[in-house]
């Protein structure tokens, strides 16, 4: 867009906002204290234009026709930084470019995408829209209308010109067999394809749906009618490299493609060796159930109106899956596991559920978390997901072999109807990480009653740690600089949740293992190396030195030559 083209635009009709903004145009509220004034900033106008369906913010031109060019110094020399800052703040990607007139005056043009369907953007907690030269709060009616927007089910739409001859016979056979087995209906495999398509709502009077194309369409039909259904698997030897070492494109009916996807990824799978106490077993880096579920979720829940393809990036130690479109309406990173959402492609998801390829709607992510954490691996990571793309990273390395063995032992001793579920395992993971305060009280009560966790700390501030079986699996006889590893693990867990503790908290922590005198001797030995104290007498509080926050930093501090410990043993 040229400056001459910009000068012909009208603010309301062309979804554009002009501001002179010669110097010091505020980025985020400026020095103002009143909300009505703070919102008259770059981010405020970006929010308002996005809520109106997208548009352009022009800085360096007068707002009245013919929009005289006056020049602006906004984000001069820092365009990329500010584009990243908008994404970090609002979760949308804007594009900022500079234009110059004959006199060298600088104009800054920011292209702003529309807000996501069914969602408003907010500046400092307020959804904004433009009215003349002002920015105003959206009314309740306006907000409700946006929130009530329904995302159309692309998979239920009829694919023009798609005919039964475009369907893959092998994929149809798989569909029949899986549906018959899952629904306990053996007669289903004998039905003609026309009846199957009708019974499963994969065909209407007007024709065959996109869901049928995705599930059982042959390669030629997919290439012709829906090429963005392709899944690209990229392998990289290291995380730092940009270009892939190998690439495998897969464009086949989903009932065939999913096996090929897993087979290709599994070809580079390897095992974690678990050997903790009586538990000796192998855990693959990439769990088949987890990867299949994650891949199927990406394919089923992606936005097919966006032309980009699903990408699976494989590294020796992890897999990242990216699919077009953000989370379905109502789903956020915070409620991902607990929310009951409406799938973006309801018909497609319904068939996957009825054939047993995926869990019930909303429960696939539960499985991903439950299995991954049970294996002692890091938490599945959705942190890079935004409005336009879901990104899931799964780390295959077992970070805590003792936790994997501990969960295995817990499950072995439980009856089939009392196995640890997703929320219990997530709770145990948080407790292991010293975050018992974020675990639901009901989960804590159940786990404590069943002996999977125990209390640590004084009655004024109850904290929890895993049962002794976990610490025993971490080899309580192992030592770091003359200290039992189990003792250091317990202290780390306590001080992760309570930054400053009293001696009585330590005594409670070691109840049944060390007496008060032994506990005091242990803490005194750690003073000056990993622990500091402040106050005196009953007011004494203990805390870690700065930089001491995990077992590696504890080990480094204890093994340092700066301080020599007494050689006496507990």
Give structural notes.
There is one protein chain. The protein is of the alpha+beta class. It has 4 domains: 3-147, Methyltransferase, Cobalt-precorrin-4 Transmethylase, Domain 2, CATH 3.30.950; 151-399, Heat Shock Protein 90 (2-Layer Sandwich), CATH 3.30.565; 400-474, Orthogonal Bundle (Arc Repressor Mutant, subunit A), CATH 1.10.10; 475-570, Winged helix-like DNA-binding domain superfamily/Winged helix DNA-binding domain (Arc Repressor Mutant, subunit A). 35% of the residues lie in helices and 17% in strands. The protein is built from 21 helices and 22 strands. It has a 5-stranded mixed β-sheet, with helices on one face. Strands 1-2-4-3 form a 4-stranded mixed β-sheet, with helices on one face. Strands 5-6-7 form a 3-stranded antiparallel β-sheet. β8 (203-204) and β9 (207-208) form a beta hairpin. The termini are far apart. Residues 562-570 have low confidence and may be disordered.
């Amino acid at each position: 867009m040229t400056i001459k083209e910009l000068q012909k635009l009208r603010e309301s009709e062309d979804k554009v906002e002009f501001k002179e903004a010669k110097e010091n145009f505020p980025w985020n509220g400026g020095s103002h204290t009143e909300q009505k004034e703070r919102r008259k900033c770059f981010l405020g106008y970006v929010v308002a234009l996005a809520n109106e369906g997208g548009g352009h913010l022009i800085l360096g031109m007068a707002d009245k026709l013919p929009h005289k060019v006056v020049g602006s110094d906004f984000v001069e020399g820092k365009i990329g930084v500010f584009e990243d800052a908008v994404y970090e703040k609002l979760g949308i990607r804007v594009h900022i470019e500079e234009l110059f007139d004959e006199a060298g005056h600088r104009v800054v043009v920011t292209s702003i995408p529309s807000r996501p369907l069914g969602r408003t953007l907010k500046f400092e907690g307020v959804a904004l829209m433009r009215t003349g030269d002002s920015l105003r709060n959206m009314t309740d009616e306006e907000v409700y209308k946006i929130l009530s927007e329904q995302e159309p089910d692309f998979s239920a739409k009829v694919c023009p010109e798609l005919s039964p001859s475009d369907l893959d016979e092998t994929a149809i056979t798989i569909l029949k067999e899986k549906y018959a087995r899952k629904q306990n209906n053996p007669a289903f495999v004998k039905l003609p394809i026309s009846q199957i398509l009708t019974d499963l709502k994969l065909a209407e009077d007007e024709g065959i749906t996109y869901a049928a194309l995705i599930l059982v369409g042959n390669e030629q039909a997919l290439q012709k009618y829906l090429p963005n259904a392709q899944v690209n698997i990229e392998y990289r030897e290291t995380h730092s490299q940009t270009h892939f070492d190998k690439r495998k494109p897969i464009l086949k009916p989903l009932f065939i493609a999913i096996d090929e996807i897993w087979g290709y990824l599994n070809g580079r799978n390897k095992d974690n060796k678990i050997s903790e106490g009586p538990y000796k077993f192998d855990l693959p880096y990439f769990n088949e159930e987890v990867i299949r579920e994650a891949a199927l979720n990406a394919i089923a829940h992606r936005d097919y109106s966006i032309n980009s393809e699903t990408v699976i990036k494989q590294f020796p130690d992890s897999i990242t899956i990216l699919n077009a479109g953000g989370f379905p309406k109502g789903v956020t990173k915070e409620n991902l596991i607990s929310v009951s959402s409406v799938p973006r492609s309801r018909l497609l998801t319904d068939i996957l559920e009825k054939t047993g390829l995926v869990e019930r709607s909303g429960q696939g992510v539960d499985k991903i978390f439950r299995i991954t954490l049970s294996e002692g691996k890091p938490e599945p990571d959705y942190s890079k997901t935004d409005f336009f793309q879901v990104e899931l990273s799964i780390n295959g390395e077992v970070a805590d072999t003792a936790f994997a063995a501990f969960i295995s032992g817990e499950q072995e001793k439980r009856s089939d109807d009392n196995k640890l579920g997703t929320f219990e395992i997530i709770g145990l993971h948080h407790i292991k990480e010293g975050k018992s305060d974020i675990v639901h009280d009901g989960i804590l009560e159940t786990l404590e009653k069943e002996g999977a966790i125990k209390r640590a700390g004084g009655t004024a501030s109850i904290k929890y740690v895993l049962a002794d079986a976990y610490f025993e699996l971490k080899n309580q006889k192992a030592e770091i600089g003359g200290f039992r590893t189990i003792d250091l693990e317990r202290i780390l867990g306590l001080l992760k949740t309570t930054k400053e503790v009293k001696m009585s908290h330590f005594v409670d922590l070691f109840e049944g293992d060390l007496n008060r005198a032994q506990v005091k001797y242990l803490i005194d030995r750690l003073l000056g190396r990993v622990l500091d104290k402040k106050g005196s007498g009953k007011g004494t509080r203990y805390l870690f030195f700065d930089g001491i926050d995990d077992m590696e930093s504890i080990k480094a501090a204890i093994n340092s030559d700066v301080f020599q410990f007494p050689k006496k043993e507990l």
